[in-house]
Amino acid sequence: MSAGVISQPATRQKGEIRLINAVPCAVHVPPILAARRYVSPRSRPITPEEAETRRIAYALKRGVETGIAAREMAELLPTDLPTITLVPVPASTGSIEANLILARAIAAEYGPQARVVPVLNRIVPVESSCARRRRGLPGLTAADHKFVRVGGWFALPVFLVDNVATNGATLAAARYALGFGTGLVFADASPTYQPPAK
């Protein structure tokens, strides 16, 4: 499998029903803008700064402590555009509440050019990748995320707002459902993480 591609098995079982919006065999992970690097303590001992990043990332799942994250994420966005659109990505439960709060906080930091448009829904809840890894299972793939676009007109560019990117599968599925979008996350755990340009 090449870097930046999320794949699923190409085989099909007899009688299997495919959803109309099923994610195809290979979906490319979109570009990801991330304020910080997310490091797992399972990989190595983490620094106090990395522990603080993890604490904030988990708090964002509850829709709290958005101030620092929103400021740092807003600084990653281009400043020379008349309009940008922030789309909150649904959590594994299907709720967009926490990422909607985060997207609105980013918009408030960025200014009136930023519009928050919640146009993604999850068809069915899924077990989170974090919970799966705790049980010794692999994380979710793009095909596991069943997102649908639920209408709405918005201006490009579009930024897909989430608290953390692990392998990029969630953002890949969200981009596939919309047809476009760049990931905008507080912390990135993927090996392709690029620190923000200073």
Number of strands: 9
Structural classification: alpha/beta
Using only CA atoms, what is the Rg? 16 Å
Largest sheet: 5 strands, parallel
The percentage of residues in β strands lies in 15-25%
Shape: globular
Oligomerization:
single chain
* Number of helical regions: 5
Termini separation (Å)? Answer: 33 Å
H/E element order? EEEHHEHEEHEEHE
Report helical residue fraction.
25-40%
Quick recap of the structure?
The protein has five helices and nine strands; from the N terminus they run βββααβαββαββαβ. It has 198 residues and is an alpha/beta fold. The strands form three sheets. Strands 3-9-8-4-5 form a five-stranded parallel beta sheet, sandwiched between helices.
SSE blueprint:
Elements: E1 5-7, E2 26-28, E3 32-37, H1 48-60, H2 66-74, E4 84-88, H3 97-110, E5 114-116, E6 120-122, H4 129-134, E7 147-149, E8 158-165, H5 169-178, E9 182-188
Parallel strand pairs: 3-9, 4-5, 4-8, 8-9
Antiparallel strand pairs: 1-2, 6-7
Task: Characterise the protein shown here.
This protein is α/β, with parallel strands linked by helices and 198 residues long. The longest helix is centred in the middle third of the chain and has 14 residues, at 97-110. The chain has a five-stranded parallel sheet, with helices on both faces. A two-stranded antiparallel ribbon has the order 1-2. Helix content is 26%, strand content 21%. Helix 2 crosses helix 3. The model is unreliable at 1-21 (pLDDT under 50). It has helices spanning 48-60, 66-74, 97-110, 129-134, 169-178; strands at 5-7, 26-28, 32-37, 84-88, 114-116, 120-122, 147-149, 158-165, 182-188.
